[in-house]
């Protein structure tokens, strides 16, 4: 992973896309300091002008599990833990999209056993500090599609934003909340470049 683990200046390589958390520690025997650093590795983007998908399993997940499924985009989706019914939980990433305006679409699975909710936020800056909101869109899992589990029959797409101005480094956060037996799922967020 690191070219020189004990060096103050080094490089890191990653074999698969995803969110990586590192605790970095510097210690000279007398004093020490540490910091937690998040690194977001995205796959190579398609040719310019084509839609770009951010797979949910490549995001930093808070109380969500990655599930294998042949019917999901890239063969995986994420689902909120069942024990976290009344607590909102999040998925987070930093975007490295080419600068431009995008329509935004969400892919998820909408079951027939509740009305779970989700909210997508896009911002310039960090959500914990000063930031400029670019998009905030909520949706409810209320289509009651044919089934109580994620499947081809419960796959859904939702238009979440239009002509959103984005640049490299913008932040994306998805907050989910379960309802009854419907545990929110997220498959992907797709960014469609505007000409």
Give a structural overview:
This protein folds into two domains: 1-41, no CATH class; 48-193, Galactose-binding domain-like (Jelly Rolls), CATH 2.60.120.260. It contains no helices and 14 strands. It has 195 residues and is mainly β. The radius of gyration is 18 Å and the shape is globular. The strands form four sheets. A five-stranded antiparallel sheet has the order 4-7-12-9-10, with no helix packed on it. It has a four-stranded antiparallel sheet with strand order 3-14-8-11, with no helix packed on it. It has a three-stranded antiparallel sheet with strand order 5-6-13, with no helix packed on it. A hairpin with a 7-residue loop joins strand 5 (64-68) and strand 6.
Kindly list the characteristics that best describe this protein.
four-stranded antiparallel β-sheet, mainly beta, Jelly Rolls, 2 domains, five-stranded antiparallel β-sheet
Briefly characterize the structure.
This protein has 195 residues and is mainly β.
Number of helical regions: 0
Structural shape: globular
**Helix coverage percent of residues?**
under 10%
Indicate the mean pLDDT.
89
Any guess at the CATH architecture of the largest domain?
Sandwich
> Low-confidence spans: pLDDT under 50, at least 5 residues?
none
Largest sheet properties: 5 strands, antiparallel
Please tally the β strands and state the result.
Answer: 14
Strand pairing plus helix content: what structural class? mainly beta
What's the alpha carbon Rg, rounded to whole Å? 18 Å
Q: What pattern of helices and strands is seen along the backbone?
A: EEEEEEEEEEEEEE
Overall tally of domains: 2
CATH topology of the largest domain: Jelly Rolls
Q: What is the CATH C level class of the largest domain, in words?
A: Mainly Beta
């Amino acid at each position: 992973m690191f070219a020189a683990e004990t060096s103050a200046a080094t490089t890191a390589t990653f074999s698969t896309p995803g969110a990586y958390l590192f605790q970095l520690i510097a210690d000279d025997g007398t004093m020490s300091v540490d910091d937690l650093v998040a690194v977001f590795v995205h796959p190579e983007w398609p040719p310019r002008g084509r839609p770009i998908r951010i797979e949910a399993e490549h995001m930093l997940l808070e109380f969500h599990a990655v599930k294998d499924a042949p019917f999901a985009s890239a063969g995986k989706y994420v689902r909120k833990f069942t024990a976290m019914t009344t607590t909102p939980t999040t998925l987070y990433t930093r975007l490295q999209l080419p600068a431009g305006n995008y329509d935004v679409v969400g892919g998820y699975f909408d079951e027939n056993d509740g009305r779970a909710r989700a909210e997508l936020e896009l911002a310039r800056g960090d959500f914990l500090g000063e930031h400029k909101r670019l998009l905030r869109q909520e949706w409810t899992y209320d289509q009651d599609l044919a089934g109580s589990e994620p499947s081809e029959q419960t796959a859904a797409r939702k238009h979440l934003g239009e002509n959103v101005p984005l640049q490299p480094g913008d932040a994306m956060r998805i907050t989910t909340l379960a309802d009854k037996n419907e545990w929110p799922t997220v498959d992907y967020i797709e960014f469609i470049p505007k000409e």
